[in-house]
Design goal:
By secondary structure, the protein is of the alpha+beta class. It has seven helices and 13 strands. Helix 1 runs antiparallel to helix 4 and helix 2 runs parallel beside helix 6.
Length: 408
């Protein structure tokens, strides 16, 4: 009987060693879960739940925005500034949400891999326990009374009991490891489900914000047209428009003066400056629907007066990429109530291009850009009644037809 007990204990120890090796291999180099790792996982889940709760609170308050806009409708300039600020806020929120979607998709991949590794550890530990229990049963481990009767002396008995106690501790540890592994698997499952829920809700939030954006743009278009076509506002609207165009011209003139001064300093210091080599411009849009307004004299679509249109309007979907038409340096990337978000690029030798009404700007003043670089996105900011790119070309301080430099 003593021989059978010893064999059983040795075999049991071998199973434990073998199980440990199997667990290490099955976990692909990852360590077994501990009480600390369980607590860390529970903390992560708590943070994800807070993130989920805060998701809806971060959505734009469209009704509040509309209420504030109502107070500005009698002053078109203030109205446009207020509404464009709201559009920028919503677009920033959309960009933030899209960033969260990309990050969450990556987190889900990592959590899925963690769950699979945890399941593998659990399965290996479960198999080890089954083998251990089966060995205990087959070895027929004796009771304490049997050990006492079989012992040759008290010392022999105590030695046997000590070995058995160690095996009991080992059995208890094996069970605790399995229980911890099982708990960790369940936590990984919970975390994965929460992350998937947040991903779905974030995608829904993007859709909501996109609708908010489109609704505000539509409202802006309607209100500007209504303001400019109203008989009572007609003369006032024409004066305001002419004043804004003069302010726009002055803003660009000052930018050109700054560019010219910088050019003089560069030549004085290094003998070189940006030069235009006469190459053809790249078409400034990734895609466009149609030419909505040509360069030259035209009857203003809502004011009904003859006005000079200093560029070409290309109708395009909001968010469409706007390209730098040619190599150059960004002279301005800013906002005005007439041009909205705009970019001005100096190409050298008195040649510049201007890109107006963007929904977003991707360059800053002073940036060097190459022909075809994405510099902005199509929008309807400024005094605009629909998504489009207003593309202008200036040569030596005057507007010229863009068609002399590009073709559709």
């Amino acid at each position: 009987m003593a021989h059978r007990l010893l064999c059983g204990l040795l075999l049991s120890g071998a199973v434990l060693l073998g199980a440990g090796a199997g667990l290490q291999a099955g976990a692909a180099g990852t360590s077994n879960p501990t009480v600390d790792s369980i607590r860390e996982k529970e903390k992560e889940i708590s943070q994800i739940k807070e993130q989920k709760e805060g998701l809806k609170d971060g959505l734009s308050n469209l009704q509040e925005m509309k209420k504030n806009l109502e107070q500005q409708k009698d002053n078109l300039k203030s109205y446009v500034e207020q509404l464009d600020g709201n559009l920028t806020e919503i677009q920033a929120r959309i960009a933030e949400l899209k960033g969260q979607i990309a990050a969450k998709e990556e987190e889900i991949i990592q959590t899925q891999a963690e769950l699979e590794a945890a399941k593998e550890r659990e399965d290996n530990q479960q198999e080890a326990m089954k083998a251990h229990i089966r060995l205990d049963y087959e070895s027929g481990n004796p009771s304490v009374l049997e050990l006492l009767l079989q012992a040759k002396s008290l010392g022999d008995f105590l030695n046997r009991m000590d070995y058995v106690e160690k095996m009991v501790v080992s059995d208890r540890q094996m069970w605790e490891d399995y229980r911890t592994a099982r708990q960790y698997v369940e936590l990984c499952k919970e975390e994965l489900e929460l992350e998937k829920e947040i991903l779905d809700e974030t995608r829904e939030s993007v859709e909501i914000e996109q609708k908010n954006l489109e609704e505000l743009i539509d409202q802006k278009n309607r209100d500007i047209i209504s303001y400019e076509t109203d008989i009572g506002n007609k003369e006032k609207a024409i004066r305001e428009y002419e004043e804004e165009i003069r302010a726009q011209e002055e803003e660009i003139r000052l930018l050109e003066a700054a560019v010219a001064e910088e050019r003089r300093q560069l030549i004085a210091n290094s003998g070189s400056a940006i030069t235009y080599d006469g190459g053809a411009f790249k078409f400034p849009l990734a895609s466009y629907t149609r030419i909505s307004d040509e360069y030259g004299m035209r009857i203003h679509p809502t004011l009904g007066v003859e006005q000079f249109h200093n560029g070409v309007d290309f109708a395009a979907n909001g968010g469409t990429a706007i390209y730098a038409a040619y190599d150059g340096k960004v002279a301005a990337a800013a906002y005005s109530t007439t041009m909205g978000n705009y970019v001005m690029i100096d190409h050298g030798d008195g040649l510049a291009t201007i890109y107006m009404h963007a929904s977003a700007l991707y360059v800053n003043k002073g940036d060097i850009v190459a022909r075809g670089d994405t510099i902005a996105a199509v929008g309807s900011t400024g005094r605009s009644t629909g998504n489009h790119l207003h593309f202008s070309v200036r040569l030596n301080g005057s507007y010229v037809s863009p068609w002399g430099y590009l073709s559709p």
